[in-house]
Amino acid sequence: MPEALLWAAAILLAVAAGWAWNSWRHRVSTRPPGTRPDRAAPARPGGRRPAPPRPRGTDRPAAKPRPRDSDRHDVPAPGEIWWADVPYADGTGSKVRPCLVLRADSRGADVLKITSQDKSDRDDHVRIPTRDWDPGAEHDSYLSLTEPIRLDFAAFADHAGRCDADLWRTIRGLRHLPTA
């Protein structure tokens, strides 16, 4: 009898380990490509990672061709959430992060940064539902309501989704933010 219990426990552990592995693999594989920064690079003080290497003589990655009118789904539009290479405020590098497009024109787009860090105690951030555009997210994120950042179209990597309609109405009502 004790030998049967050991086998049952071993089988139960093997099934649980397989379920956990499959759950983790599914969570990682459902993320859009390029949605997470490289975790292999060592973090700088303050949690920042070094900027990816750039080609000599340039301060931005090579520009991708401007989409034709028939490819308009590849162009960021107001109210959309995109993964983009957003520069740090101090100019020491950049980070691929989600951002909300406020307005776009032929030269680029004005965006607000989205962070997964809890900023609920700050007046300059607002909670933004995350699961609609990032299925791998474990909690909601926070949208920075500070000064918008201007990005070239080359900085945009992947379309993530649309902003929650109620939140978008609130953002459009804020006088200090430019919206289309």
Summarize the structure.
The chain has 2 helices and 7 strands. The protein is an alpha+beta fold and 180 residues long.
Commentary on this structure:
With 180 residues, the chain is α+β, with helices and mostly antiparallel strands. It is 20% helix and 26% strand. The protein has two helices and seven strands. Strands 1, 2, 3, 4, 5, 6 and 7 form a seven-stranded antiparallel beta sheet that branches. The radius of gyration is 21 Å and the shape is elongated.
Give the overall average pLDDT: 76
Low-confidence stretches: 37-47, 54-72
Whole-Å distance between the termini? 73 Å
Kindly state the number of beta strands: 7
Q: In this structure, how is the largest beta sheet organized?
A: 7 strands, antiparallel
Enumerate how many helices there are, as a single number: 2
Classify the helix fraction into a percent range.
10-25%
The secondary-structure class comes to alpha+beta
Percent of sequence in beta strands: 25-35%
SSE order: HEEEEEEEH
- What coarse outline follows from CA principal-axis ratios? elongated
Instruction: Please state the CA-atom Rg, rounded to the nearest Å.
Output: 21 Å
